[in-house]
Specification:
It contains eight helices and seven strands, in the order H-E-E-H-H-E-E-H-H-E-E-H-E-H-H. The chain is α/β, with parallel strands linked by helices. The chain has a single domain, classed as Rossmann fold. The strands form two sheets. The protein has a five-stranded mixed beta sheet with strand order 4-3-2-6-7, with helices on both faces. It is globular. The relative contact order is 0.18. About 4% of the residues have low confidence.
């Protein structure tokens, strides 16, 4: 019996030690970027440049610094089909101009690793949800930021993936690009986003993506401010 109690105590201490070792931030954010077949290289580069510019923008840094911990943790993944996702920029702490610029530089350097394979938003959500357990940070808010130009056409129903993520305490926000499906913003409202305060910011086309992602990140991050 004492041996069993001892092992239980060691497990509890290990869990407590891991929690203590994690860095507290105001938000853990997964940026899930569409790399499906409808996204040619020009469109992909426009998405990429939008993210790079946003994390170099003073208003994004101001939003980051508005929370009680004055820092967030961010990672980026590319996605296409149900089993085609890859983390292209690891978890990064952003708390000042230097770290924000370093993250934007990492996005700029990250090559496109996926090409085609269908549009599985459900697969993107399922994969993104697994990345939180790999983070060395802890936050009261965990959010998946999904951007894409099409509705779910591969894998399981996106509503199931959404509901499971929300039940696990993960919020989902959306940035639909309306270039190919003019009503995609309504689809994102109805089927993709979820969790307290979830929202959609739509980009009319790829040329306006940079403005949309800047606005979206400011709203998303500033929600940390009580």
């Amino acid at each position: 019996m004492w041996r069993a109690v001892g092992w239980a105590l060691l497990i509890l201490l290990a869990i407590a030690g891991r929690a203590a070792a994690q860095t507290a931030v105001d938000l853990q954010l997964v940026l899930a970027v569409d790399a499906s077949g409808s996204v040619d290289q020009v469109r992909f580069e426009l998405q990429k440049r939008g993210y790079v510019a946003a994390f170099r923008h003073a208003r994004v840094l101001q939003a980051v610094r508005s929370g009680p911990n004055r820092a967030i943790a961010v990672t980026m993944a590319q996605w296409t089909g149900p089993m085609l996702q890859v983390q292209v920029v690891g978890w990064t702490l952003i708390g000042d101009e230097d770290t924000a610029v370093a993250f934007s530089d990492a996005i700029e350097r990250a090559p496109r690793q996926l090409f085609g394979g269908g549009t599985s938003i459900s697969g993107a959500i399922d994969y993104a949800a697994t990345l939180f357990a790999q983070s060395s940070f802890r936050a009261n808010r965990r959010v998946i930021d999904v951007s894409g130009d099409g509705s779910n056409n591969r894998g399981r129903p996106v509503t199931l993936a959404r509901d499971e993520a929300v039940a696990a305490g993960v919020g989902i926000n959306g940035l639909p690009i309306l270039a190919l499906e003019p009503d995609l913003d309504r689809y994102y409202y109805d089927s993709v986003i979820g969790g307290p305060g979830a929202f959609v910011i739509a980009a009319k086309n790829y040329d306006t993506f940079a403005d949309a992602i800047l606005k979206k990140l400011i709203i998303e991050i500033a929600a940390n401010n009580p």
